[in-house]
Amino acid sequence: MLSRTAANLYWIGRYMERAEFTTRLIEATVRLSSLSYGADVASAAWESALAVVGRGPAPGGPPNPHATMFNVCKSLALDESNPNSVRTSLAKARENARSARNALAAEVWQAINRAWLDVRDRTSPGGVQATFGLLEVLKANSRGFEGALARMLRHDALWFVRLGSAIERGDSTARLLDVKYYLLLPEGEKIGGTLDRDQWTAILETVSARNAYRLLYKDALKPWLVAEMLVFRAELPRSIVGTSSEVVELLADIGDRTGRQGEADRQARLRHSRLLDSDMSKVFSEGLHEFLKDYVAENGRLDAAISQQFRFP
Amino acid sequence: MPRKRAFDELWGTGGGPQARAGFDAIGTWLRDTPLADFARRQASAEAAFRSLGITFKVYGDDEAGERIIPFDIIPRIFTSQEWAKLSSGLEQRVKAINAFVADVYGPRHIINDGTLAADIVLGNPQFCIPAVGAEAPHGVFTHICGIDIVRTGPDDFFVLEDNARTPSGVSYMLENREAMLRLCPELFANLAIEPIDTYPDLLRETLFSVAPHGAHEPVCVLLTPGQYNSAFYEHSFLADSMGIELVEGHDLEVVDDLVWMRTIEGLVQVDVIYRRIDDAFLDPLMFNPDSTLGVPGLMAAYRAGNVAIVNAPGTGIADDKAVYSFMPEIVRYYMGEDAKLPNVETWRCREPEGLAYTLDHLESLVVKLVDGSGGYGMLVGPTASKAEIEEFRAVLKAEPDRYIAQPTLALSTVPTLTDKGIAPRHVDFRPFVLLGAEQVAIVPGGLTRVALEEGSLVVNSSQGGGTKDSLIMAPPRPNPAAEPVEEQHALPYGR
Q: How far apart are CA B293 and CA B252, in angstroms?
């Protein structure tokens, strides 16, 4: 496979995943902000959504009067000048898909193209109902893409797409948890209060894990358990340990095919075995924030090692 | 100027309602299918094309960005006899073109023995000096030709242009057929139509057949300028259907006159390059030094015989309009027989008689620059004003060498779905001819382009032209004897 094609496929995975994550983040935040009473609480929800995708300061600073539902939805979903908006992500995914089209199943290209066409002419999210309508379309298109991937041959092209997805997914889960962790325990708010429960629910919805939590824990929402699920439960596709193990497996599949392994394989295995040796109490005692910050940084180094190992242009 | 009714390929010159001999079935189909049904099917085809991303880009047109080429649901049909005649003419013409290119970059017999004036070839802007003396692997230079054919009557086919560089449009031929099979299955059930889906296999065979000697399991690639090129869809479509890599210039590099591509496993040697970029961008060391689309050193690798370039550099000499006017002589020279497909009558203004005739008949002629394309610097006599004609007369007298003149042809028409119902529209035809090391292959079909405006003769997609499927009827075959069909096991039922 051409190195350029491999890079295209990897970035298709990353951008499609980014589009889906951002969509779910908006959806969960719409719900959270409409459940909250008081403009400042709603606004804090939107500020934190911006922070998760690196478009705003970490929570705790002075309130941002522009962080309204309409503005943030527009910025995150449709803004062309936001390099991580759903629209920009889909446009970039499509550019990469166009370039690597012969490595993709026709259904995959069509799914990406359709996802792009559906946002291309949208300029405003509109009111709440229209926003939900838009989000439904975006989510359906993400599912269409995932379904189409199942049509791909089980070989290196699919593995590069999924490698991009796995790297991106681990990254977003860590970012989400990091930002929300701060917000979750505002001063004076009793743990286990209404706001608290809504916040945790919003997190679970962002990673589409509301039902998963009930299935895995059969317990009321407890912050400790939610954090544990997102970091350490391999059954959850978006958990940090789950994506980390997927990265190891995908790199091994590619290595079997090309007959060689490299720095990326080494880093990925090292990271995964460290995670397996750890647990939630260790992470809490050393600081969840530090753990997540290190994880995002390490993920960046792994991304660079992948680019180098496969000679991405 | 009043023009007599053009020959219609379905209704003949009568204008209906009686279809030409052999076309009754299609005539009935056209009459019996409700107009709304055609419109619905056509809209559905266009929606499918957009969803597949079968688009082309219009340069300098940001607003539109990517457009789809309008598709017309009513196909154009040739009988097997018409096709047999056409394809034997095409084979002859393409063999002659290849022999001509091999000759002018090699021994130059045709010039040395005075059949063709030296300046027609050597003084031609299309003559590619870096290709002089290069021997293409297996002696094949013009592997893929798109020969533009026009028709004026039941038996009157003319070659309008020979595209011997990098002819495009074959993906539309294939996708149009896919759409027709889906949307008008009854047509294929009632008529025996030759299949065209073998084209990618034939092309693949052609490419592999010209790999340089000694290449073990040859590696073929398709070289594209990238996704912003107007024909990128076609490039990716062809690479995909042949199962070869779609590469850009920076995916390749030349080391010691060998061509390599960069892969996730390291460098892999390339034997055959189906290039879809022009000569001028092929190799910045030899041609345009600013080109980032090509591969530095590629011409040296080609001249060393280490890589086949499809089509070979310099084949543009064969589709130049000045050379075109000599094609009847060129065919006779290399094939030892008269051209089976005639040229459109052409007057060369470089010759005194040609110039005199042209100046006397400017009102009825089309006068073209020999090295022009896209309709620039040309005069269409019948639609030009008096002032335009006089202005052009002065230009022509000043530089007669640069011009040729042709009559305005009454191009044939084919019934087409328009806003006002089904009406005749003018068409041309581009079949694709493949020349490999061993054989010539012509897939039974081609790209029919249609001028959608009433009376218009301009079929270019950039100027509002559309496309149609082109069906070749198969010769009649006896029915195979009916055999008893074995019973299939029924599907199991659960709860």
A: 10
Q: Are A7 and A310 in contact (CB under 8 A)?
A: yes
* B232/A254 Cβ within 8 A: no
Q: Sketch out chain B's domains with CATH numbers.
A: 24-344+409-472 (no CATH), 345-408 (3.30.1490.270)
Q: Which residues of A touch B248 (CB under 8 A)?
A: 4
ipTM of the complex: 0.78
Among candidates B53, B246, B265 on the partner chain, residue whose Cβ is nearest the Cβ of A109: B53
> Would you state the structure tokens that stand for residue B173, as one six-digit string?
């031929």
Q: Which pair of structure tokens corresponds to residue A124?
A: 């405003």
Q: What is the pLDDT of residue B461?
A: 67
DSSP element (H, E) containing B451:
strand B447-451
Distance of alpha carbon A105 from its chain centroid, rounded?
24
- The 10s digit of each residue's pLDDT in A77-130 is 999 999 999 999 999 999 999 889 889 998 999 999 999 999 998 888 888 889
CA atoms within 13 A on the CB side of A3: 21
SS3 B288: coil
Residue whose token pair is 């779609």: B246
| Interface contacts (A, B; CB < 8 Å) | 59
The predicted structure's pLDDT at residue B212: 94
Strands B447-451 and B245-247, bridge-based pairing: unpaired
Residue of A nearest to B267 (CA): A2
* Residue B330 distance to chain A (closest CA, Å): 40
**Digit-coded pLDDT (tens) for B22-63:** 898 889 999 899 999 999 998 888 888 877 666 655 444 444
What integer pLDDT is reported at residue A127 of this predicted model? Answer: 86
Share of chain B above pLDDT 90, in %: 60
In the prediction, which pLDDT does B373 show? 59
A34 Cβ under 8 Å from any chain B Cβ: no
CB burial of B417-436 (b: ≥16 within 10 Å; e: otherwise) equals: beeeebebbbbbbbbbbbbb
Task: Please report, for chain A, the start and end positions of each structural domain, with discontinuous segments joined by +.
Answer: 3-309
